[in-house]
Structure formats: C-alpha cells, structure tokens
DNA sequence: GGGCGTATGACAGTTGGGTGACAAAAGTGT
DNA sequence: ACACTTTTGTCACCCAACTGTCATACGCCC
C-alpha cells in the first residue's frame, strides 16, 4: 500500500485531492502547512509527497528543501500557474516532478506511479550494487562492508557509471562527463576502469559489476 | 526525404551534427538561436527538430513550448549533461525524446527514425519480439530471459532491423546503415545475419524472428 | 534437375581492450 | 621552498575476440 502526503493550505483542494487519491487506492494524509507536513513526514513517512508551492509560513520551496534533507521520498510539486521560474526553482530545491492546478487526478496518479517506478534510486544517498555500496554524499565506497579508498578520478568515474546504472556509457561519454574533455585519448578511460576494477571487484579478471561491452563502452550493473 | 532542423548555438557542434545527419541522408538546416529556428520552422517546417537546451536569448525550454504550439513536429532535445531536472522539464515542455552530448550520430539517427515511425510517442527502452528482448540503452539482448552476448556488429545489425520491425531491409541498406559502406560485398551481410541467427533464434535453421525474404533482404518480425 | 540465391564453416588478418611500467603532475607535510 | 607520496596520463605490449573473405554446401523456385 502506498502512502501519500498532501501538503496544501487550501482546504477544498487538499480534501479533493485526498479523496481522489484514496479512490485510486492510496493511503492518504494531509497537512495544511509546511510545518505540519514536515512533522507528519518525520513521524510517519509517506512514500510520496505532494507539495503546494504557495504555503503560509514556511513556503513550498523551503519545505521541499527540508523534506529532501532527511529523506529521499519522491516529491511532486503542485503549482498554481505554470510559471517556469517557480517550477525550475522547485526542481532545483529537490522536487522530482510537478503538476499544474487544476490537477487532473488521473494524470497525477500516473505520475506518482512513474516516479515510484523510476525511483529516486538514481540520486539516492546510497546506491547498492550487490556487495558494492556507493554513498556519493559521504564520498564513501564499500565492498562487502569494507571501506575502499578510491582516488578522486576513480570515485567520479564510479559515480558517473552508477548514475546510469545498467546503461552503457561510451568512452567518449565518460571522457566528457568525468574528465570534461571534449576530445582525447579514449584509452585513458580503459586504464582508469582497470584501476577501479582492481578495487571494486572481488575478482577483477571477470568483473561482475563493472563490465565491458566490447565496441560499446562500460556499464555498471547490479 | 526527411528534413531535420538543428537549433544549437555552438557553431562547431551544429555543423558537426548537420554534416553527420546529411551523411545519413537527411535534408538539413541549422539555426544558431531559438528565434532563428522558430522562424525557419514557420517558413519551411522540418520533419524533426533538434533543440539544444542552452541557447542565448529564448532558451531551449521556451523554444520547445513555442514549437509545440504551432506544430506537432517531433522534438528531440540535446542536453549538455544529463541532468534529470532539465530533461524532465524539457519533456514537460513538449519534447519527445532527448539525447545527451556528446551525441552519437548513429543513435540519434535511430531515435529520429523511431520517433517518426511511432509518431511522437516516447521511445521505448526495451523492444520485444516474442521471446526476444532488445534494450539498446543497456546494450543487452535477451532470449527467453537469458542474456545473450552479441558482438558490436551483431548488436548494431539487430538494432537496425529492430528499428524497422516488420519491414524488409535490403543487403544494400544494411551495408549502408550498419557498416556505413556506400558499396561493398553483400555476402558480408549474409554472414553476419547467419551469426546473429545462431544466437537469437532458438532454432536457427527455421528462424522465427530474423527471416530471409529471398531476393529482397531480411526482416525482423514479432 | 538446373540455376540462382542463401547458409555456413574455416581461416587469417585486424581490432579492441587489459595490464604493467614509467614519467609528469598534483598533493602533502615539514 | 623542499622532499616525499600519491595520483594521473601515456605508452607499449599482448592476447582474446571479432571481422571479412572465401570455398563449399544447401535449398528454393522455375
């Protein structure tokens, strides 16, 4: 069962949303202010949070920031008008998606589903690949619980690959994203991948996570 | 003949893209600003539009919105880094797909084709042909859930066929699209189709997916 | 059955990628 | 500023995997 928290000050809209979401099969709870919403989320975290941007007291942006500080819950913004500035700012504050009022519940529901499916995994605090754990924020990587010491380049490379878990990244793409080179010797990537493998693979000769796709590039998989 | 409009402010990138697309058989036109691009599209609409997100003056998002207002043309976003926010925002603004720089022209071309065929529906990550699953992003192909290991050529060949599911492709066309050869020995295609069949068909002798049309070419079917 | 188009196995040349060595560069502490 | 350590990028070499060609075998269609 999926729980949704709706933070919205307008009673009518909040109630309408809660009823509609309940109808869709969600467990719902509501909050009329950011403070109330944050408290609610701290006490009993929901799986999705909907936040109106225009709130009395602590506003929506700050609310998003605080929610995001504690938690990786998917946040969907409800915005009054579709003002690009507001939306960009909200996404920058850490929101994952937004809908514009008046809210079509079917659409909202679809987005919640999509968000949950897509998951915030890509930007989650700790990414897990079997016995490999990467916590980008803390700058730590563990293999079977054992803390590894990676160089900066290795770490960036790993993060880049982890951010695209399961997708192939070409040497070209890695050169650009990790090194910022527009052009350069692709063999550089090979060497660093090799070094990274020595550290993150229990058996570097046949890697289980950081795999090569001949002619395509590299991929990090679970 | 398919016309593509590229709206990108960086001269080098724009020119490179235009040349590459021309090479692929598209009619191309370029624009360095959103204004110029919008005007061009109004005067002489292209069949696909590529838009960079970072543009001087009117930015990419606004440009997409305005393009979408007048027209149903498929829009592909070119984004510098793959920042989830940017991409979500671009898709919200009305883009249909996106590619991340540095752009692999083959990939781009495939997406354009796919977009045109599917007509503005998002490009599926995984294509399914009965018990055969192709995930281009992950560089993975599965037969009955079992992961196959294809060579680069086999993979490209398969993708090319999959992008034209159900349509016959002549050896000539395949030579050109997969190998980039303007001319060459068509037997080469046979050999690789054969090798591919050994891997993707449960019964290579009478193929169910990758079928030969005597005198015409090959076809991948569901 | 004959002829043409297609499948396939073998082979040699080529390519792509892993790796260790090394020098330059960056970082660190005194 | 200096000496020392760590990290980074380049290079050369090697091997496994892949590619393209060819010869031969097969099978469809008239």
Automatic annotation (TrEMBL), chains A, B:
BP GO terms, sorted: regulation of DNA-templated transcription
UniProt GO MF annotations: phosphorelay response regulator activity; transcription cis-regulatory region binding
Positions where 4-aspartylphosphate occurs in the chain: 52
DNA-binding region as annotated in the record: 124-222
Domain annotation OmpR/PhoB-type: ranges: 124-222
Keyword annotations: DNA-binding, Phosphoprotein, Transcription, Transcription regulation, Two-component regulatory system
One Pfam family from the record: Trans_reg_C
Residues of the Response regulatory domain: 3-116
A single Gene Ontology CC term: protein-DNA complex
Protein name: DNA-binding response regulator
């Amino acid at each position: 069962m999926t729980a949704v928290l709706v933070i919205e000050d307008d009673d009518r809209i909040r109630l309408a949303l809660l009823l509609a979401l309940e109808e869709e099969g969600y467990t719902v709870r509501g909050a009329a202010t950011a403070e109330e919403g944050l408290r609610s989320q701290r006490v009993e975290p929901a799986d999705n949070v909907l936040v109106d941007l225009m709130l009395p007291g602590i506003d929506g942006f700050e609310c998003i920031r605080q929610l995001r500080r504690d938690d990786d819950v998917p946040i969907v913004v409800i915005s009054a008008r579709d003002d690009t500035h507001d939306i960009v700012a909200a996404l920058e504050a850490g929101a994952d998606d937004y809908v514009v009022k008046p809210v079509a519940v079917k659409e909202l529901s679809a987005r919640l589903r999509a968000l949950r499916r897509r998951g915030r995994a890509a930007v989650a605090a700790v990414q897990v690949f079997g016995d490999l754990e990467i916590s980008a924020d803390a700058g730590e990587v563990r293999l079977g619980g054992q803390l590894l010491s990676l160089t900066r380049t290795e770490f960036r490379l790993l993060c880049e690959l982890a951010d695209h878990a399961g997708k192939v990244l070409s040497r070209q793409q890695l050169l650009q994203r990790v090194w910022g080179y527009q052009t350069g010797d692709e063999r550089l990537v090979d060497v660093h991948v090799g070094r990274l493998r020595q550290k993150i693979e229990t058996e570097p000769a046949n890697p289980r996570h950081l795999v090569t796709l001949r002619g395509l590039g590299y991929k990090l998989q679970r």
